[in-house]
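pls design
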């Protein structure tokens, strides 16, 4: 789960390294963000590739979390880091690669049909 002021890793090749959550979109309760939710982030640190600047506000897609999630078949899983990828205003990724696995629920979300290039790195 991601709340305001949470620190996330950026796991794409857009140039950001650490992100800080500013706002969580589309949540009706205080449970925070779930996988495949959009969040507003501030860029804290950069890699050597500088396509973006420190302190910019960008939208991101939450793809990995430390909290356990339970699927409909009873299987539970979690990752050991909170991670997101940066997207633009039309919800198209700013990157061309994603490092590491992501949730399968993101691929089967009908609102995110633009992300079907992620199909080969799902768990």
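designed seq:
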């Amino acid at each position: 789960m991601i709340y305001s002021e949470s620190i996330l890793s950026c796991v794409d090749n857009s140039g950001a390294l650490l992100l800080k959550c500013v706002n969580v979109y589309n949540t009706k309760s205080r449970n925070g963000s779930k996988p495949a939710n959009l969040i507003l982030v501030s860029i804290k640190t950069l890699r050597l590739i500088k396509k973006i600047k420190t302190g910019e506000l960008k939208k991101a897609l939450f793809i990995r979390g430390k909290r356990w999630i339970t699927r409909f078949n009873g299987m539970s899983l979690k990752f050991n880091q909170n991670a997101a990828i940066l997207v633009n205003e039309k919800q198209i990724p700013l990157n061309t690669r994603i490092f590491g696995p992501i949730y399968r629920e993101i691929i089967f979300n009908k609102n995110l049909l633009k992300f079907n290039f992620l199909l080969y790195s799902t768990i």
